[in-house]
Design brief:
This is Nitroreductase domain-containing protein. By secondary structure, the protein is α+β, with helices and mostly antiparallel strands. The chain is 54% helix and 10% strand. It contains 14 helices and 5 strands. The chain binds flavin mononucleotide.
């Protein structure tokens, strides 16, 4: 059986099953009495949605490739950026510390400066100038400094067991490798000594830990942008020290492991954007959304053009004032 006939047979079977269930419901006149059939109907609906989700995701995954060139002067609508960043924020992170900020660079002047003074190679320079936006991922190299804020966020949201919150501070400094110097050395020696006897946390270098988290978040960003029909190109060919200076990323505290040029690919068919007005939770399983560990505010994580600069399109769409107060408290 070919895939398409198989799919058609499955769909026909589903229609028949759904019709039979509806008849059974009417005949008995009591939904509870046909609960096994109701369950079956629900499962059918779920599996239709799952099929559609899988097909859509597969299209996005196979449709992505790194863009070689971008159409200049083709801005991405604010609503599209906003939705991409909302999806990006759902990326998981170690201890939910959310150690990655994104500077979404769209200013033509700053893009040009970055291209001229920090990007390596003709391709990266050209892409930086032409792409609608460059998402610059900034990794916190002192993730321990975030623990207090995240602890508070999780406690207030009632998102964790008390036991978890009690050990989070110590456990997170262990795993992130933050702390530096003698204490890190002592913890690593302790873990290495006990490892032959019992499983111990792997103590990574803090940069590796933080860059790992940025990799996960940047991939989420790429998939979100791809789902919106945009093209991307991850870039590591740049002088990070110079880039940080241009984008005012606090040196010593952050590193820049990756940038993602984003926009409309040169020579590709025009993109007809889906209506992002459907809001972020459309089609989302609510209970799963509620169970997700709380995230930092959009304006805490995402900046415009330079580090710490608010993104204009988030200003009137978010609880930004309380988020900014939180930032100032840090
Ligand atoms: C971490 C990372 C860094 C990259 N850096 C660059 C870069 O600086 N310049 C560039 O043109 N492509 C860069 N790429 C894109 C790769 O060349 C590209 O992903 C790879 O050739 C596979 O092609 P595809 O993305 O079209 O599947 C990078 C990709 C990754 C994952």
């Amino acid at each position: 059986m070919t895939l398409s006939t198989h799919a058609a047979t499955k769909a026909a079977w589903r229609r028949t099953a759904a019709a039979a269930i509806a008849v059974a419901r009417r005949a008995v006149g009591d939904h509870a009495a046909v609960s096994p059939a109701s369950d079956a109907a629900r499962d059918e609906v779920r599996s239709d949605a799952a099929d559609a989700g899988l097909r859509a995701f597969r299209r996005i995954v196979h449709g992505r490739s790194s863009a070689r060139g971008f159409r200049p002067d083709a801005p991405v609508p604010d609503a599209v950026w906003r939705d991409i960043l909302h999806m990006t924020r759902t990326a998981p992170s170690g201890f939910n510390l959310q150690p990655t900020h994104v500077v979404l660079l769209r200013s033509p002047e700053i893009k040009r400066t970055l291209a001229e003074h920090a990007m390596l190679g003709y391709g990266n320079k050209r892409r930086t100038i032409d792409a609608s936006g460059i998402a610059v991922f900034c990794s916190d190299m002192r993730p321990g400094m975030r623990v207090g804020r995240i602890h508070e966020l999780e406690r207030d949201a009632g998102a964790r067991e008390d036991g978890y919150l009690a050990v989070m501070r110590v456990a997170s400094t262990f795993l992130t490798g933050d702390g530096g110097g003698a204490s890190s050395f002592a913890r690593r020696a302790f873990a290495n000594a006990l490892s032959p006897v019992r499983p111990m946390p792997t103590m990574e270098d803090v940069g590796m830990w933080s860059y790992k988290n940025a990799g996960i978040m940047s991939q989420m960003y790429v998939m979100a942008a791809s789902a919106h029909g945009l093209s991307t190109c991850m870039m590591e060919g740049y002088d990070a020290r110079r880039a940080m200076e241009i984008l005012r990323v606090p040196n010593g505290r952050y590193g820049v492991p990756i940038m993602v040029a984003t926009g409309y690919e040169r020579g590709a068919p025009p993109v007809a954007h889906a209506d992002p007005g459907g809001e972020y939770d459309e089609g989302v399983d609510d209970s799963r959304e509620r169970r997700r560990a709380p995230r930092l505010g959009m304006s805490e994580l995402f900046f415009g053009d330079t580090f710490g600069e608010p993104l204009d399109f988030l200003l009137d769409h978010d609880d930004t004032s309380s988020e900014r107060e939180n930032m100032q408290r840090r």
